[in-house]
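Obj.: predict assembly geometry.
Materials: sequence records (below).
Method: joint structure prediction, all chains together.
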Amino acid sequence: MKTAYSFFIGLFGLTILVASCDKMEVENPNATNDVVIEFDNRIGSADLVLGTSVLTNSSREKYTVSTLNYFISNLKLITEMGDMVSFPDQYFLVKESDSGSQMIELKNVPTGNYQHLSFYIGVDSLRSIADAGLRTGVLDIASYGSDNMYWSWNMGYIFFKIEGNSPVIDIKGIDKFEFHIGGFGGKEGPTPNNIKNVGLNLPEMTKVSESTSPTVHIIFDVNKVMDGSSTIKLATSPIIHSPMVGKTISANYSKGFIVDHVH
Amino acid sequence: MSCNRPSEEPNPLEEESDGLFYQPDNFPSASYDFKNNPVTIQGFELGRKLFYDGRISRDGTISCAECHSQSYAFTHHGHTLSHGIDDRVGKRNAPSIQNTAFMKSFFWDGGVFDLDFLSVAPITNPLEMDEEVGNVLKKLKSTAGYPELFEKAYGGSEITTERFLKALSQFMNSLVSANSKYDKYVRKEKGGGFTPQEIAGLSTFKSKCASCHATDLFTDGSYRNNGLAIYERDLDVGRYLITENENDKYKFKVPSLRNMEYTSPYMHDGRFINLTMVLEHYANGVEDSKTLDSELKKDSKLGISLSEEEKLNIKAFLKTLSDPTFISQAAYAAP
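Observations (raw structure tokens):
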């Protein structure tokens, strides 16, 4: 028994020695590297093409998508040891019309094996009430042009925007649908809150090291906007701007993100 | 915090009152965070030029002053609802711009809680200026004079969203109205002598109106349903638009009563064209509803009991809130 015990200790020690030798020779354990999070909007598994792809919801309504934008913020990575790396003050606006915006680059991620990723869809309440001086980059309200992502009348960002067309809609001859989802919870008093935190396990251990800079490929299934815990019918709800009504939609889309693979 | 004017700068306006923000002794302390945007003469002058510049609107025709005219304490005189671009009609009565630094929220429903972002609403509203903020910045960049004015105000000629919005705030924050006969009365200054009727009016006001029109700002900044008849055709649910809470239906922000002599018509939709109609509403016109303010249904009676004499006294008192220096201050006029 004693012999066997020593044997196992010895073998274990040898393994550690080999592993650490390997690391020390090749990699600096204090090195950092980039992690890219790719947001790929799809219809099930098929590619989404704006204005062209025809989607069908569970109410058998056919529609196309002309605009799909959403804010991603407050990203966090958690290692197998439970260590958390967070990325505050980094805000991203993912736009289907801009492929560059779909690749989010997280800089200076410490070496480690990461097994969990989380992020907000939206802009946190603190930044939603912040001074104009802190609203630069994608939070600059002058940066949106005609593709607006800010509400001036009920001050706050539009967290998630999907627009498109459907033959089942006829509002004075126009077949357009618009879901603008915002609402950070209010400053003076409570207002509807549509900030959603999405947590995803990374299927294979995602390794970051001096030589490894992984890309986490996330698929967002656009079908989920109308078909999740609630079913949205375009014929009856073609225009949704109200943050309260938007709660059903944010609950739906927050369940539409999966990690497809890491490479 | 009380005063942010730069002391060393030579001030061309110093000879009268310079017009910049100050903290009146009888006001609550300012709620605006001046730390991030101190008022300077150069920032004020830039804000003033922007306030009077139609370039802020889509077609160059509508400036802020269109609906906020100094002669009427920065309101849209004679318009129940404000008129904007292409003669489109807005949904509410343009509120007065005065004492903004002391307010915690803006607009009748309080949808904006930061003065720096107030201007974005009329600029982008299709019924008002119908423009994008990005386009405004582009226009300013290519307009002779503006880069220099931004340089003077901020020490750099770059025209950013923050600088643009904060310059407008500097101008608005400087629109302090605290020189009425009432102010002189409470500060025991020259010209503050009240007549017996004004004293009686103040006394009635304090017991019957000041629970909402509180402090020397004459508003407590709260949202209340004051029992106005609900017009189904032009339904305006007020604060509910922002909170979507049933308890906030038909509530609107309590407006300040300062300079009310210049700011008719009254209420969020301008339905009352004179003070007589307003007092008549509170005395006899209040309609009951689920969200009617409790101050207006005391002792199981609707409204506020007001004798004819009390009404006359209140009217006399409210005129002491007029600040003629505010509407004639040269520093606030078009540059």
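Conclusions so far: Confidence is low (pLDDT under 50) at residues 1-16 of chain B.
To do: check interface contacts against the pulldown list.
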